[in-house]
Design a protein that fits this description.
Layout (H helix, E strand, L loop, with lengths): L1 H6 L9 E9 L3 H10 L7 E4 L16 H4 L9 E2 L12 E2 L21 H9 L7 H10 L1 E3 L17 E3 L7 H12 L15 E4 L4 E2 L2 E2 L2 H6 L8 E4 L2 E9 L2 E9 L2 E13 L2 H11 L2 E2 L1 H6 L6 E2 L11 E8 L6 H4 L3 H14 L11 E5 L10 E6 L15 E8 L7 E3 L10 E3 L6 H18 L2 H4 L4 E4 L8 H11 E3 L31 E3 L14 H18 L3
Parallel strand pairs: 1-2, 1-13, 2-10, 5-6, 13-24, 14-15
Antiparallel strand pairs: 3-4, 7-17, 8-9, 11-12, 12-13, 16-19, 16-22, 16-23, 17-18, 18-19, 20-21
């Protein structure tokens, strides 16, 4: 892989124009699948451009390595949000993958499609072809499901695709106790979160192969690198799109000190993610006209929705001390225990080093009026003040809960004309009364679950936010603002919608409204966020988008 991806051969191009049929900007979760699918047409020259490097670091292979990836400029853009009023003025770190595989190389590895309701609402909002029944075949097309037996598939799962799905390779009694307590509180245990209705508790299914992270660079890009019509250019920053006569014609790339002018005969496919995609559009003069003019940019195409509609899942991380049961906190507190953990992984590819950030999930309703679950728990056999800091020195677990369907909306905006200056990221968490109510109700439900007999026997003692925070809604919402953090699911900043929607950026075929030659194929096109982790839906979007693109140019 390294020989092709790092060489980035452009057939002798320096600052002269070279032309490809498809130019894919962003070699992340969506971009790697797109490169594979579009290069299956051996008559088309395909270029994949990635600002980061190859996916060859040990910590992008070992699952627990996400702890070393977040905040590391080798593989992370290291963004931060603007100060958030809803979080009592705090700013959050905002990890985004800067490596082949993108966020799939550093994320939580959880395979989660969301709910059928999510996609049916997309269809009802004018996005024809995006209902649950429409998109399910695209999930199946690349799936390799080994977390379930084939008898459980019933048309909802498949084997033989590139995207490996396995069951976790470690279990914890404290997590089983949570699932039992949730059941005692009225939330059933289920086997599978991915059949269209994910209400209940279960261990998450993970994108791993025998205890090793399975990123999209390994699943989709590596098998395609031997194709002569595919070129992969790494450590290359796309500075702007080129536009002529109402058409996006290519890109300007900088690699090392050399500017590269690259043309696209058929299409530029923008797959830089919910932060990178609107940033590149705006720096190219595509976006909210008044904002761009204020920054001194020429407006090539005014499109007010570019960068708007930012949605994310905010997790409220409640933490509980326990007694009489093991957690990871004490297992990581000595060199002896750490050595045992490392040896178990080296010999068997099992144990804590195979852990995703969360192992067990629960989907529930914050109140009885909800049509479907609107809360997701990520339950962990550990506690820590924040990612990257040492675990607490006593037995404890975390019950992290997020509002699956936030009503708050934020934005992404360029800060200047400089393409290398980080964008302004303003999620506007907890900006609506509805979101503050759900946060308060989520804390109340968590407190109810931990009082159930299955957990009560371990004397759970809440220390984040703590018993001093009573049950008053505003006090609970304020406490949520103190302890909540992103769960790394930004979407929606180039949302899909019909031409009649003034804030839509792309149409249901993912073509940019008002300009030819450009499609957007990544999580930014989601009209509303899906009810769960967003990697699997992003791959579905890429699979469906690749088919749309190929169909458009089929002779």
């Amino acid at each position: 892989m390294n020989g092709v991806s790092t060489a980035g051969s452009l057939h002798g191009v320096s600052d002269e124009l070279d032309t490809y049929d498809y130019v894919i900007v962003g070699g992340g979760t969506a971009g790697c699948l797109l490169a594979n699918r579009l290069s299956q047409d051996d008559t088309a020259r395909v270029l994949l451009i990635e600002a980061g490097g190859p996916d060859d670091w040990i910590w992008t292979k070992i699952p627990i390595g996400y702890l070393y990836c977040f905040g590391n400029p080798r593989v992370d853009w290291c963004f931060s949000t603007a100060p958030e009023p809803g979080l009592n003025g705090r700013s959050l770190g905002y990890p985004r993958g800067k490596v082949l595989g993108g966020c799939s190389s550093i994320n939580g590895m959880i395979y989660m499609r969301g709910q059928a309701r999510d996609y049916d609402l997309w269809r009802q909002s004018g996005c024809e072809g995006w209902s649950w029944d429409d998109v399910l075949p695209y999930f199946l097309r690349h799936q390799d499901q080994w977390a379930l037996s084939q008898g459980d598939f019933q048309g909802k799962h498949a084997r033989g695709g590139e995207w490996r799905v396995e069951r976790p390779r470690v279990r914890w009694r404290i997590l089983d106790a949570w699932a039992e307590a949730a059941e005692q509180a009225g939330i059933s245990r289920i086997k599978d979160f991915n059949r269209g209705d994910n209400e209940g508790s279960s261990y998450f299914q993970v994108n791993q192969r025998k205890g090793v992270r399975w990123s999209t660079s390994r699943a989709f890009l590596e098998p395609a690198l031997s194709r002569r019509n595919l070129t992969v250019l790494t450590n290359a920053m796309v500075e702007r799109l080129t536009i002529k006569d109402g058409r996006v014609t290519g890109v300007i790339v900088k690699r090392r000190t050399f500017p590269l002018r690259i043309g696209a005969r058929r299409e530029v496919v923008l797959s830089a993610g919910a932060i990178g995609t609107p940033h590149l559009l705006q720096i190219s003069g595509i976006g909210p006209g008044e904002r761009l003019r204020r920054l001194g940019l020429t407006v090539h195409h005014a499109l007010e929705g570019v960068g708007e509609n930012l949605q994310d899942h905010l997790q409220v991380r409640l933490a509980y001390k326990v007694t009489g049961i093991e957690t990871l906190n004490e297992r990581s507190s000595s060199l002896f225990h750490k050595a045992r953990i490392g040896l178990e992984y080296a010999l068997r590819r099992t144990g804590p080093m195979t852990m995703a950030p969360s192992q067990l999930g629960t989907f529930a309703r914050s109140d009885a009026s909800r049509e479907t679950p609107n809360l997701q728990y990520h339950v962990q056999p550990l506690t820590l003040p924040k990612f990257g800091e040492p675990l607490d020195p006593f037995p404890a677990f975390t019950a992290s809960v997020c509002n699956l369907r936030p009503t708050s909306r934020g934005f992404v905006s360029i800060a200047s004309q400089d393409p290398y200056e980080p964008p302004i990221i303003q999620p506007n968490y907890l900006a609506t009364d509805a979101d503050r109510q759900v946060a308060a109700d989520a804390i109340r439900l968590t407190r109810q679950i931990v009082t159930m007999p299955a957990l009560a026997q371990f004397a759970p003692e809440e220390f984040r936010p703590g018993p001093a925070v009573g049950n008053d809604t505003e006090a609970l919402a304020s406490a949520a603002g103190d302890i909540a953090t992103t769960i790394f699911h930004p979407v929606g900043t180039a949302r899909m919608g019909p031409a009649t929607d003034p804030m839509a950026v792309v149409d249901p075929d993912l073509r940019l409204h008002g300009l030819a030659g450009l499609r957007i194929v990544d999580a930014s096109i989601m009209p509303t966020i899906t009810s769960g982790n967003t990697a699997a839906p992003t791959l579905m979007i890429a699979e469906k988008g690749a088919e749309m693109i190929a169909r458009s140019w089929r002779r």
